[in-house]
Write a structure and sequence with these properties.
ten-stranded mixed beta sheet, 14 strands, 318 residues, binds oxa(dethia)-CoA
């Protein structure tokens, strides 16, 4: 039997402060109608007392506790983020202590932008061993800190949050199936770092990124299905990065996916970069929609430009 990767527990943490479209209308020339119609977003969360690490810790602790996994058997802790509070130590190294993970745990942060969680799934699967078959993958983003609240074309889109998954190696008839890539491009989406000479704000050519997304997602999904020898009938849920409800609907229509197979929670949180997919997984868990034996297909895409899709089997989820 081949080795695959399975989801054993989820967790999430969100800032307390809810920011509605109406709140943003007071800052920039926008409207609830425009934001809902063009993106599907109704509200998002912004950090006030929380930060990128505290959200990561909240999500990771919830997932680890729920999993019942002994921290001594965790081989790797990866945090995907483009918003780390510190360049060093990594958020993952700080989590090691908070979670009580042993010294032998590999801990590092990974920047795959909005494809980060799916990149992380692929990377973490290579670090798990028979003795220590568990990994903690956390995605924590505080995009409100990188938003220019004078730019209506970007500031209405993004929110803050963290999601976490405890994953494990499993026997699988499919093995590790994933399709990943990048297309070097600074023109359509970039965020200078805090050390750059310009302010660290998100710059995006929305339409160009939209076109990239609706082109790459169906091709990525097809390639994952081909590797697994599955058709879409063999997949229970496609969990796409929540950048725009119109992107999700466009892909669903193209692939003839029924709405119940395409999870959407963008209305409540906006775009939280790599945190969207694990928060979606935790929402699904809390809605009682995940059970052992299900096959999920998370797909991320975004800055880089990057994309990634993978088959994620649901294990004995707690
Ligand atoms: O997570 C990383 C990946 N990111 C994405 O996947 C984002 C992909 N792109 C998108 O989701 C969409 O392109 C956006 C939501 C960013 C923009 O929607 P759009 O339908 O592509 O709008 P647009 O940029 O073509 O702008 C249309 C109009 C413009 O006005 P004019 O020039 O037609 O007069 C904009 O100035 O909408 C205007 N506009 C707004 N109006 C009210 C842009 N932002 C706003 C706003 N409120 N917040």
């Amino acid at each position: 039997m081949k080795k695959g990767i399975e989801l054993l527990a989820t967790g999430s943490a969100l800032p307390a402060k809810v920011v509605t479209n109406e709140d943003l209308r007071r800052l920039v020339d926008t409207s609830d109608e425009w934001i809902v119609k063009r993106t599907g977003i109704r509200e998002r969360r912004h950090c006030v007392g929380e930060n990128q690490f505290s959200l990561a810790a909240g999500a990771a602790q919830a997932a680890l506790e729920r999993s019942g996994v002994d921290p001594a058997r965790v081989a790797a802790c990866i945090v995907t983020t483009i918003c780390a509070d510190n360049i060093s130590p990594s958020c993952a190294c700080l989590l090691q202590r908070a979670l009580g993970l042993p010294e032998q745990t590999v801990c590092f942060d990974l920047n795959g932008a909005c494809a980060g969680f799916v990149y992380g799934l692929q990377v973490i699967s290579g670090l798990l061993t028979e003795d220590r078959p568990y990994g903690i993958l956390v995605s924590s983003e505080t995009l409100s800190r990188l938003s220019d609240f004078t730019d209506r074309s970007t500031c209405v889109l993004f929110g803050d949050g963290a999601g976490a998954a405890v994953v494990g190696l499993c026997d699988s008839p499919y093995g590790l199936c994933g399709d990943f890539g990048s297309r070097s491009n600074r023109e359509v989406l970039y965020i200078p770092s805090a050390t750059a000479s310009e302010p660290s704000y998100i710059h995006m050519e929305g339409q160009a990124v939209f076109k990239f997304a609706v082109d790459i997602i169906p091709r990525c999904i097809d390639r994952v299905l081909q590797q697994a020898g599955l058709t879409m009938d063999g997949v229970d849920l496609v969990v796409m990065h929540q950048a725009n409800a119109r992107i999700i609907d466009h892909v669903a229509k193209h692939l003839k996916l029924p709405p119940e197979k395409c999870f959407k929670n963008i209305a409540r949180y906006g775009n939280m970069s790599s945190a969207c997919i694990p928060i979606a997984l935790d929402d699904l868990y809390r809605e009682g929609r995940l059970s052992a034996g299900m096959r999920l297909l998370p797909v991320g895409f975004g800055g880089g430009l990057t994309w990634g899709g993978a088959l994620l089997e649901v294990g004995d989820i707690k």
